[in-house]
Amino acid sequence: MDWTKTKSLRKKCYKRPFSRRSKENSIRVINDPFCYHFVHQTNMKRILLLLLLCVSFLIPCSAQKSKTLTNIEKAQIIKEILIDTVDDNFLQRGLRLDEKKDVVNLSLKNIPRNLIPHKVKGVKFQLSTPEEVEEKSKTGFGYYVFEEFNVDGSKMRVSFNNYWRNTDARAFMSGSIDYYYRKISGKWKRVKKTQRPNGIS
Questions:
Q1: CA Rg, the chain, in Å?
Q2: Exposed e or buried b per residue across 164-184, where buried means at least 16 C-beta atoms within 10 angstroms of its C-beta
Q3: For the chain, what is the mean pLDDT?
Q4: Which of 19, 35, 37, 177 could form a disulfide with 13 if both were Cys (CB 3.0 to 4.6 A apart)?
């Protein structure tokens, strides 16, 4: 229906009272079946347009970048990184007097206990809270920690660090591996891995 026809139908089907003092100074529809159908269609179009406008305002809110991981996603990432580190680091690391080859100290910083697998490829994890790590570090303690889960929408960087600290002797060693992920088809896929230089003090 073109604009000219629509305009003529509006004139035919709508009218206003001529008296300005009338309490019913609002649009009245002529009592005609055709006009009723026309007005009904017009009102439905208005309602549909209003709904579309509301949805257009709501979509940006729902599409805001997510900054969190679900427990299932986090467990998947943790397990994948631990498996990767067993192959590259855990079994080849230089052991100190208080360490065993098949036991790795892991801090619970940033990760709940129930998301940690008990064993990965024969390596067990000795879990310590951040408070326990601080206490053990007074006399020398080596451990690994998921230092950061940096989520930005469909991108994520996970920093997995290893430390040896002796706070009484003021000795410190560290190393870090950054894992980069992208969310593809609803699942996190690793796209890059970089190792930062070790720090010694």
A1: 33
A2: bbeeeeeeeebbbbbbebeee
A3: 75
A4: 35
- CB atoms closer than 10 angstroms to residue 69: 16
Q: Which residue has the tokens 């980069």?
A: 180
Q: Which two tokens stand for residue 55?
A: 């949805």
Q: In what order do the strands lie in the sheet with 155-166?
A: 119-120, 123-128, 103-107, 141-152, 155-166, 171-184, 187-200
**What is the spatial distance between Cα 46 and Cα 32, in angstroms, rounded to a whole number?**
21
| Cα separation, 17 vs 25, whole angstroms | 6
At residue 40, the pLDDT reads 58
- 143, 99 Cβ separation under 8 angstroms: no
The structure tokens listed for 95 are: 């052991």
Residue 193 CB partners (closer than 8 Å, separation 6+): 84, 177, 178, 179, 180
Residues 80-137 have pLDDT tens digits of: 999 988 876 665 555 565 667 788 899 999 999 999 998 888 889 999 999 999 999 8
